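G.,

No rush on this.
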Amino acid sequence: MKCIINGDEFNFEQDLPVTEVLSSLELDQERIIVEFNGSLIKKENFNETIVRESDQLELLEFVGGG
């Protein structure tokens, strides 16, 4: 399954929930905002939102600093 994440093509063996996509990219889902096919999704919906062929995700990670 191919999908686009932040403009880059990624290949996964099967459709996956957003939580597993984030995990495979070693991203902390507590610090990520996800836009899924043009719509923001809530963190509580990450596990039920399934990424399929040709889906597009934009990921924004919050980082602290100072």
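When you get to it, here's the other one too:
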Amino acid sequence: MAGTICDVLPAAAALLGAPDATDSLGLVSAFGAKRRVMVLLVDGLGRHLLDDLGSEAPLLAAAAAGGAGRLQTLRCAFPSTTPTNLVSLGTGVAPGRHGVLGFTVNVPGTDTVLIHILWHDEPPPTRWQPIPTWFARLNAAGIPARAVLPTPFLTSGLTVAAYGGAELIDAGTGDYAQAMLDALAGGRGLVYGYVSALDTAAHRFGIGSPQWHAAAGYVDAVVTGLVDGLPDDTALLVTADHGGLNIAEPDHVDLDADPALLDGVRVIAGEPRVRYLHTAPGAAEDVRAVWAERLAGRAEVQTRAEAIDTGLFGPVRDEVRERIGDVVITCTGATAVMASAHEPPQISQMIGFHGAKTDVEMMIPLICFA
């Protein structure tokens, strides 16, 4: 296995002949130069989940079995959460550089918790995430880059951070594959799309549930539509942002139900599989010790410096260090750290989770059709 989500767009750009594009995934040698490339990111389609698909998703199941496309296994960025990985895909750099370091993070110098999927203008997206995206780099090189997105995403701060510089196209409510193919008809360039149905079903109903399999069928139909309409001069790359696992309620730890876990904690961020605890002055070591005892065998408990030194986030810019908690909790087994008094009730009701660094959360596919 080689490669990460950060390598996908540089490799796509290399297929298109973009300057300074590095193809570490071997796509150019496998497929040759292409006039057009489509990239479809399927939220929550972890590599191991491909093996759980059946008759409802025949094309993806065939890809898992080696009978369709060219399948590679990559790793996503840590934390294995959507905002972090959309920006790692878009910029081609690790989270320590782009600064979108989790599902939610504390805005340094405040008690505000930024929820990246609900983010608009504050903090200003280009200040919060200043790394140029590959969409912008392609357009600057005279290679059009377009992103076909659901309507609610068109004006979000996360879209600016992940896809800034792309021509944004409203996917509408019709045939998503056709919307991407229509965007491809604009000529040479890159067309990107995003599908969330599988991840939504995993969170609400659980991986392997009938609703999850139905969502997999929808994803398969989108991919099949793209493959069926794929022009000869075009490559289609299908990838994901993370995998996931089901965690039963008895394996939840509710930090708001245990006063000892809140002692010395000023701000709580992250998500159930990776928590960032921002502590009162001088309290970080005591907080770390209490959490390490409470979650022994169930989570890795580190100070910010320890987490950074292990390379979890890649090299970390000084400007973003404080977005990481003073104490970082990374669940290792089937454990979820809930914050029932700090988060919407939908979080506590989730069945499928992701965010930590287990293989089932971090391994993602790259399926290439050309």
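The radius of gyration is 20 Å. Residues 210-228 form the longest helix (19 residues).

Enjoy the weekend,
O.
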